[in-house]
Design brief:
single chain; 300 residues; alpha/beta; 8-stranded parallel β-barrel; globular; binds orotidine-5'-monophosphate; lyase; orotidine-5'-phosphate decarboxylase activity; OMPdeCOase_dom; OMPdecase_type-2; EC 4.1.1.23
Length: 300
Amino acid sequence: MSETIQGAGGHEPYGERLARAIGQRGPLCVGIDAHPAIMDAWGLPQTPAGLLRLSMTVIEAAESRVSAVKPQVAWYEAHGSSGMAVLEQTLEAAREAGLLSIADAKRGDIGSTMEAYAQTWLSDGSALAADAVTLSPYLGAGSLAPAFELAEATGRGTYVLALTSNREGASVQHVGGRESVASGVVKAVEARNSHASRATRTDSDQIVINPHGLVVGATVGSSPQAVGVDLADFSGSVLAPGYGAQGATAEMLGSVFGHVRGRVLVNSARGILREGPGLGQLRRAMDSATRELEPFLAVA
Ligand SMILES: O=C(O)c1cc(=O)[nH]c(=O)n1[C@@H]1O[C@H](COP(=O)(O)O)[C@@H](O)[C@H]1O
């Protein structure tokens, strides 16, 4: 039986928990996205009760199978306070199931407001605390400091948007060529990781992953090199969305991330969820994705 991956609130650093999860269960992160098409296909109403059913079913299917789940906060917010209550239950259920949770909130604001976002998603005792949160750096990566500091203090992680999977992202992220906006983001996050790593305990037999990660889409192809981003120089983890529904294949993931295997979480939401609502089908879809990714991303 695999060892439980300790959830948020534990003080073991996020990077250590993540390295162990990926080593034991592989790189798959299942996105919990309540797309209307998925809700319809599952025969669920687009209500908080439907959202709760979707979320709990995904967590039940994912338990002991995959490393992480990533609830997309937008679908919970859409239901107001009832939806946010469902998100709280979802994060708690993930923790109880031993799954790492990444709250996909894509927060970013001036430092004083960022402090409040950090408290919400990254503090012990917050009902919305996850193991990690996604952040947007477009008010300047430095404005994210309150989240970086709190994540380090509470053993949690962050994922900062660098090269996103959507086509429109290039119009901002690629600006500047080899000195691109994206490369500046990567350097800023890595600088924060170097600072954090002084306090990080390391086990000699385990890949060392620093707490602050990047979002790099599985669909980006050769753009990292073209815009001056070399993930081999990066010491955090990479969240790679775009596998499955957005068209990225395991081969494509291998060519972008093969040199940083062990530090990549591959997100798939619709690609897995469309196989539901049966638990057996969902589990088979997760196992089959993990098997498909293994030759390209498994740690040797
Ligand atoms: O931060 C993300 O997870 C994210 C970044 C990105 O570059 N592209 C991207 O699709 N995502 C998220 O990944 C999810 C889409 O998953 P699929 O249904 O597998 O395409 C949505 O929640 C997106 O917001």
